[in-house]
Structure formats: C-alpha cells, structure tokens
User: Which sequence fits this backbone?
C-alpha cells in the first residue's frame, strides 16, 4: 500500500434504500466512509443510522432540516445541536464532526462551533451527483480528480423538494472504489 488516503462522504441521509446499498458496496470493497446525516432523516430512519455506525463508518452532523434559509441565520447552530441530540440518542455517541448544508454558515455560528471543539469538514471533489448525472460522469469526475487526502462529496439522502434517486451514485461506487484502490488509495472515515 502506498499510504495514500481518500475520504468518501455522503450527505443528506440516511435514506433507504440508498444508505443500505452504499453500505453493501463499502463492505464489498472493505472501504470506510463518513455519513453526514440530517436530524429529520435520522428521526425517520434510525435503524439506517445504527447500521452505518455498526459497520464502523464515521458519523457527522449535517443539521436538522437542511434548509437554505437556515444557513443565513443563527438558528443553524440550534439545528446542529438538535441533530447532535438525535444522533446521540440513536447510536450513543456524540458526533464532533460537522458539515453545514451547502458548506455554508454564518461566521458567528462557525466560531461558536469551533470554540466548542467541533471539527468542520467540507470537501475537495464534488461530481454533482445531486443532479443525477450518468454513472460514468460521477465515476470519471472523482477518479480523474483524486489526490492523497482528498474529500469526496456524494449523497445518500433525497432532497424532499426534488425526491431524487441516488441509484447512479450507488452504481458509480462500484467503479470508483476498486479503481482508486488499484491506484493505491485507502478509503477512510474522517
């Protein structure tokens, strides 16, 4: 192994059947990932989060509602705290890893979270899988831009306003993971 690390992250879940399909693929290739979950989705599908945690993947907080309006106000902090409570009650572990919806939040919210020792994680590689591009596009976008320490943004959750399928994201993983493993990458959780 060359010692290169890369990080798959999945936002907006949990959401079935996609979360379980992603877990199956990760297990098949012995890869680890990080799931940034929304509180309202954990409330709907707590067993999915339990499966993610039991499989040894990292869990991050992605706010409660994933509302565009929340990123502009101080209420985003309270969405993170509510989601933290829901996650902790579901899996018994308090997450210290946060990703804001769309990677955006007010500076005052960010400072408050950092002062409380949270880690904020954004991403380096985004194949825009939320637009549902073809499988080959998602895979190629990641493989051609991969680098040691890169953080990949993907999605397992469905946006309620669009109710998007994540089947292309799931299918692309069966190309991305083995290809990058052959190039010496190890998939880790954040």
Assistant:
């Amino acid at each position: 192994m060359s010692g290169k690390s890369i990080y798959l992250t999945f936002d907006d879940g949990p959401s079935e059947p996609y979360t379980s399909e992603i877990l199956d693929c990760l297990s098949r290739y012995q890869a680890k990932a990080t799931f940034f979950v929304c509180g309202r989705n954990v409330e709907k599908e707590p067993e999915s989060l339990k499966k993610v945690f039991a499989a040894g993947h990292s869990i991050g907080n992605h706010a409660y509602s994933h509302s565009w309006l929340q990123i502009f106000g101080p209420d985003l902090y309270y969405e993170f705290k509510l989601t933290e409570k829901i996650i902790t009650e579901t899996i018994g572990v308090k997450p210290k890893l946060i990703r804001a919806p769309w990677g955006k939040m007010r500076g005052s919210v960010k400072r408050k979270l950092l002062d409380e020792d949270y880690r904020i994680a954004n991403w380096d590689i985004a194949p825009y899988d939320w637009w549902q591009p073809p499988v080959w596009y998602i895979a190629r976008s990641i493989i051609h831009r991969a680098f040691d320490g890169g953080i990949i943004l993907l999605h397992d959750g469905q946006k309620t306003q669009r109710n998007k399928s994540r089947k292309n994201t799931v299918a692309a993983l069966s190309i991305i993971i083995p290809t990058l493993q052959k190039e010496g990458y190890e998939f880790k959780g954040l």
